[in-house]
Amino acid sequence: MTMRRLLSGAAVQAGAAAVAGMLVAGAAYSAAAPHVVSQAGRQFQPTEVTIKRGDTVSIVNDDGDLLHHLYVDSDRLQFDSGDQKPGSRTNIEFTNAGTFMVLCAIHPKMKLTVRVQ
Fold it and tell me: What is the distance between the alpha carbons of residues 84 and 67, in angstroms, rounded to a whole number?
């Protein structure tokens, strides 16, 4: 076998390994895509989500004329979005396992349960 064939075969194997690595990394990235929750009509939709530790919940204010104000008050997570204008998106990363309540400070009946495994 010539040196050129050996080098060519090694290059093909290295390229295949690189592509396989990118595919695995892409699969890992898509698994960590945010879970999207809508705020519309003074309620969350869905009202409950189950995610993995380290995942992000992306909450979108889909009310055309209402402000919302998200917060989480837990011994494992403190979060306050401030006022959310219509059309805005707020991301919350959940790094601890457990069950969390995401509430709206403006509309007290709005409750989102997030279960983190």
Answer: 5
Q: Are residues 68 and 11 in the same domain?
A: no
Residues 18 and 48 in one domain: no
92 and 67 in a single domain? The answer is yes
- Domain residues for the domain of 18 are 1-31
List, for residues 47-60, the tens digit of each pLDDT value: 999 999 999 999 99
Instruction: For residue 51, count CB atoms less than 10 angstroms from its CB and return exposed for 0-12, middle for 13-18, buried for 19 or more.
Output: middle
Q: Are residues 53 and 82 in the same domain?
A: yes
- Residues 80, 73: contact at Cβ < 8 Å? no
What does the pLDDT look like over 79-105, one tens digit per residue? Answer: 999 999 999 999 999 999 999 999 999
Strand pairing class (35-40; 98-104): unpaired
